[in-house]
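Quick one - inputs below.
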Amino acid sequence: MVEHKNRTEKKYYNIASLEKGIRMLELLAAHGELSVSEAARLMDTNRAGSHRFISTLKDLGYVEKNSSNKYQPTLKIMALSQKVADRFEIRRMAKPHMHRLSMMYKETINLGLFKNQEIIHIDKIDSLEVLRMDSALGDKAPAYCTGLGKSILAFLPDHELDHYVNTVDRRPLAPNTITDKDEFLQELSRIRRNGYAIDDEEMTIGLRCIAAPIFDHNHYPAYAISISGPAMRLTHRALEDIKSHILKVSEDLSHKMGS
Amino acid sequence: MVEHKNRTEKKYYNIASLEKGIRMLELLAAHGELSVSEAARLMDTNRAGSHRFISTLKDLGYVEKNSSNKYQPTLKIMALSQKVADRFEIRRMAKPHMHRLSMMYKETINLGLFKNQEIIHIDKIDSLEVLRMDSALGDKAPAYCTGLGKSILAFLPDHELDHYVNTVDRRPLAPNTITDKDEFLQELSRIRRNGYAIDDEEMTIGLRCIAAPIFDHNHYPAYAISISGPAMRLTHRALEDIKSHILKVSEDLSHKMGS
DNA sequence: ATAATACGTATCATATATTGAAACGTTCGT
DNA sequence: ACGAACGTTTCAATATATGATACGTATTAT
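Output:
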């Protein structure tokens, strides 16, 4: 009777029913299929209780009844999983490239994701130098004035780019921010020709950066990779050296993503 | 006040907290990452409520906090998803082959999964003939006296096969059921040489069947495919014709599964 | 064939888990 | 340096999950 009630040690602000429901889904996935009463035994409850959870999961579409009166998980979990996996897959594949670039150039390497017209930093390797850009994972940045952003924008489908240029406010954040629409479109066309983008103190004064887009299996520029550092170290001369390397990396990653 | 309470139309034996929790997970997956208060707004609740669900998902390992105080789904969903997907993947890939075999031979085609020393029927195409085997999806059958089962057993790793032969009761279910251990091991060795198994009225009187194993990416004979029908139609002569086709199909599917 | 058992599903009163408000310390934006 | 927004924790009120009960059907044993 003691081990039956020792769940009091749990944080009392957790949702017990959610834990049980997820556990039910895990059991169904592990066993492939379960009847209401089999599940009841595994969950240490009665048939009525078991049925309630399974029925809820069924209504949510994560579980279905097969012809032998057993319940089995559906492929709906795949939809969830896919969304999550995509985000992690690029990180896993980019990591070795990022390390190599980091060792070669001793500057900060960033991996960005384009979402809701913004750049989200999904991975990075910090420069070991004292003077360095200090961004946190998950931070957001505008696309129009960053290397990551511009390299992606340049390869967006026409209608999406149109929408971007016409709706996003290009407020000046640093001396060189490109605010004029025509000038901005020219810049994107230049990037499209080169394959890479340079952010020359357009978001942060003193910060320079070179970036290239990474295309996913839909040939969509979902991600970008960049090297950024203080303008005094990352001279235009230095960028010239880095250029071909980062292009090579972005092409390789695009290929790995199925593009 | 009315639209706020019209959830009374729901089946009252569903678990509301589970629905909300899953919805929270879906939102996190769709948005990539969300803060407690962003989620609160999307879920139409307050920060405390939102936090409770996220915290629960975090403790379950499905969600983690990133460095910008947002919560994002982890790869744990993949583990769930993978288990489910495996079951469906073989079905999806086997379907066209099964249809082709069905049209060629006009008999019942079965796809089986080996689990807990039993065969589970995970897909089938019924023969259009009046006289036919009537099995339901999800039905279980013993492995030792079915084509599907024997074709898999024959290619099991040694220690697993040992365990099977020594623990499973080979009770006679039909005239030709192989009950003797040595005779059974000889049969498996014959199947290993041929690559396919024949069930000659070993489980059901009057029913004959030919089956071949399908290997997964671990080179494990996780599945098998079979053609079964009445012994009077599925003569040994007929089986001779079918043999090479079913072998070809099973090899192709093994290859597609990464074996 | 028939009885007995196991099972899936539905309903209800009651016990309990969830809820929203309130509060505290921290972070963020200005 | 200030105020607002946020994440987290606590607690009492109450909306919700629970277990018992019941019923019709499938499965198994006799």
